[in-house]
Amino acid sequence: MSEIKKKRVLSGNRPTGPSHLGHLFGVHDFWVSLQDKYDCFFFIADYHALTTSYDKVEMIQDNIREVTLDLLGAGLDPKKSTIFLQSDIPEVAELNLLISMVTPMGLLERNPTYKAQMQELNIKKPNLGLFQYPVIQTVDIVIYKGEYVPVGKDQLPHVWIAADIAKTFRHRYGDIFPIPEELVGEFPNVPGSDNRKMSKSYGNTIDVRDDEETTFKKIKKFYTDPEKIRIDDPGHPDGCPIFYFHTMVSGKEHCDNVKSECESGKRGCVQCKSEMCENLNNHLKPIRERRTEFARNPDEVDKILLEGGLKAREEAQKTVQAARKAMGLTERSRLIQTPTIKYKFIK
Ligand code: SF4
Questions:
Q1: For 171-196, what is the mean pLDDT?
Q2: Which of 230, 243, 279 to mutate to test the pocket of ligand 1 (most atoms within 8 A of CB)?
Q3: Which of 77, 135, 226, 248 lies 20 to 30 A from 336 at CA?
Q4: Which CATH class is domain 8-190+297-335?
Q5: Based on C-alpha coordinates, what's the Rg of the chain?
Q6: Ligand 1 within 6 A of 224 CB?
C-alpha cells in the first residue's frame, strides 16, 4: 500500500535572543505537536534577524546556537522534522530577488506588522530588508513548497500577505508552488513578570535555559493581584500571571483548587508562587535535560543542521530552477558547483 504523502508545514524562529517561556509554551510546543502529522520544516531565521540586528552579528551567531538547542530541548526531533539554518540555503536570496519583481509596493506599505515592529523596536530609520520582510517570509514558505504555516491569531496577516504575493507570482508564471495557508494553534499569550506579554523587549522573561534557582528567583518577583495584600483578602486569579502559569503546568484539579482558595481568601501569594514554581520546574526538567545533553554534543547539533540544510536545499534548488525557467532566465547557474555547507558557530 502506498504511503499517503504528508502535507508540508513550514516555520522559523529568529535568533535574536534566547527562547523564553512565551516561545516554549506559545510556539515550540505547537511545532512539536505537528511533527507526527505533517512533513515539518523548521528553520533558524538568521536572514530575518539581520533585518533588525544587522549591526549585532556576534549576538546573532551566539543565538543561532542557543535557539537551536532550545528547539531540540523542546522536543523537535530531527528524525521527524527537517531542522536547518535559513542562510545555508542561498537559493532563498535568489528567489527573494525573483519574487520581489512581482510584489506590489502597496502591499508592503500596507503591511500592519511593519509599523508595529518599528514602534516596538524603536526603529527610527528602517532599512529595505525590514520593509520587504514579507517577501523573504513568502520565499521561506514557497521555496520548500510549504502548504501550512503554524501561527497565532495575531500573526494571521503574515500568512495572508505571503499568500497574496504567492498568488501574484503564480498568476503570471504558473503553478510552481502551492499557496500557503495558516494552521492556527492555541498559542497562549504567556504573561511575563510584569503581567504584560512575555517579551525580551520588556525585560520580563524567564528563559528556557534558566536553571531552577533562577526560575524561582524570577517567579518570586512576579506581579500578583494588587488587591490581595493579606492571605484572607479575596483575590482575582483570572488577572494574575501566577494563576496563568498554574493553568499551563499544574493540572485542572489543582487549578480549580487554587482558583477557589484565592477567591475565598484561603490562599497566600507566597505559597501560591512557590507551588506553581515547583510544578513549572518539574514541567521544564526533561526539556532542560534534553537541552543540556545536546549542548554537550555540539558535533551532533552541527550534523542535525547540516543534514537538515542539505535536504532543504535540494527542495529549494528545484523551486528556484522552476522559477528561473518560468521567468525566462538561463539555466547557467545549475552548472556552477556550490560549496558544501560548513558549520563553525557551535562553540
Ligand atoms: S493567590 Fe495565587 S492566584 Fe491568587 S493572586 Fe495570589 S498568586 Fe495570584
A1: 91
A2: 243
A3: 135
A4: alpha beta
A5: 22
A6: yes
